[in-house]
Design a protein that fits this description.
alpha/beta; Rossmann fold; 7-stranded mixed beta sheet; Methyltransf_Zn-bd_dom_put_sf; transferase
Length: 411
């Protein structure tokens, strides 16, 4: 047991080491060309697990305001994510008989990637997005978006102004929240009495099973099992009545949540099955979490050995993508421009920058056709199929793709 702050959910003092990834800068702190001669701040990237509630968590080194007020991630640049959002909107509207009078509110609505599909159905919508630069894009597309951080105070203000959610959506945001109590209480306030809340998040069980250590970075304060998240909602008198496994982000869960006294939702068998699945994987035993650290070290050794062998053979390797997860992987493994000549990304907001820590330059994807590398190292492995399909032309000169997680794969 380590001398660390108390658990951010249950306040237990029993926090144990889960994964120590050394020192890294903030994963989304891309370096502008004019700042390339300036230093960067590196922080310990050390995840801990609570021995009481099994919440995996990081220390907070920067406030949410400092991290998220200006953000480099725009959801609409991923075609597969847009498709995922469209399928979700169609499904939830049909399953829960949402109508033209059903109010849809999304927390961390990004650039309107999801709400646009509800707007297209003429349903009343509201997005809440803390990053002003991202919210600006959403508002320019006609997606009504408020620039603010979500919590009790904002939820009460919106409620007092007449807002209430028949459908409240929180996709891949709860991990970014330093104050879980404030955030979940806010969702309870904003959710109408018979309203539906859906939450998507990367599943801790899959993270551990597939060595997805690169999804650990400072912008993610917490990592959830289904069992732990169920406890968190239950503490605020909210009930998870259904759960689905998703393929997104290397294995995610979508939970369906309602107020405890909402009568129209029955508890699905999937809830019981998911609790049992996590018990079978040992997520209720601290030893399971201890074993993860060695898996991470082994994965690092395998990645480095592979890249060293390629470079010794005179091969040219470049990266594809500049995601936050990639910056964790590259910094932890010590992979910089001595291994990857450069990386590319479809987002114009990242092009022309340098990756934090490693200082690998980021270019437009057209750079690959110009330089014809031998290997393309895919850091956003969660959308590898989309990337490989887009980049089929590299086979003209015999280039191959490298996917590092869960283990080295050459395609």
């Amino acid at each position: 047991m380590l001398n660390k702050p108390n658990c951010r959910f249950c306040s237990s003092e029993s926090l144990y080491s889960f994964a120590d990834l050394g020192l890294t800068p903030m994963a989304n702190s891309y370096v502008k060309e004019v700042d390339k001669h300036k230093g960067e701040t590196f922080y310990p990237l050390h995840a801990y697990v609570c021995g009481n509630c099994f919440l995996v968590q990081l220390d907070k080194y920067e406030s949410a305001e400092e991290i998220f007020s200006d953000y480099a991630y725009f959801s609409s640049f991923s075609e597969s994510w847009l498709s995922h959002a469209k399928k979700y909107s169609d499904k939830v509207i049909e399953r829960f008989d949402l109508s033209l009078t059903s109010h849809v509110i999304e927390i961390a609505s990004n650039d309107g990637y999801l709400l646009q599909f509800f707007k297209g159905r003429n349903m009343p919508i509201l997005g809440i997005e803390p990053a002003a630069n991202v919210a600006k894009v959403a508002n320019e597309k006609g997606i009504n978006t408020r620039v603010d951080f979500f919590g009790r105070q904002l939820a009460q203000e919106l409620s007092d102004s007449g807002y209430g959610a028949d459908l409240l959506v929180a996709n891949n945001v709860i991990a970014h929240v330093p104050d879980l109590h404030d955030f979940v209480e806010g969702m309870k306030i904003l959710l109408n009495p018979e309203g539906l809340l859906t939450v998507e998040f990367p599943h801790l069980m899959r993270l551990m099973e597939n060595n997805q250590f690169d999804t650990i970075y400072h912008e993610h304060f917490s990592y959830f099992s289904f069992s732990t998240l169920r406890e968190i909602f239950a503490a605020k008198e909210l009930t998870i009545f259904d759960v689905e496994e998703l393929t997104t982000h290397g294995g995610s869960l979508r939970v369906y949540v309602c107020h405890n006294d909402a009568d129209k939702y029955g508890i699905s068998e999937a809830v019981t099955k998911m609790l049992e699945l996590e018990r079978e994987h040992g997520l209720n035993k601290i030893e399971t979490y201890h074993n993860f650290a060695e898996q991470v070290r082994e994965t690092k050794r395998d990645i480095l050995s592979f890249l060293v062998s390629l470079k010794e053979s005179g091969k040219i390797i470049v990266g594809y993508g500049a995601p936050a997860k990639g910056n964790t992987l590259l910094n932890y493994c010590g992979i910089s421009s001595d291994f990857l000549d450069y990386t590319v990304d479809r987002s114009p907001y990242k092009q022309g920058t340098l990756l934090p820590g490693t200082r690998i330059p980021v270019y437009h994807p057209d750079k690959i056709a110009e330089t014809k590398p031998d290997y393309i190292f895919i850091t956003p492995w969660n959308i590898k199929d989309e990337i490989i399909e887009q980049m089929q032309y590299v086979k003209e000169w015999g280039a191959k793709f490298v996917v590092p997680i869960p283990k080295i794969e050459v395609i």
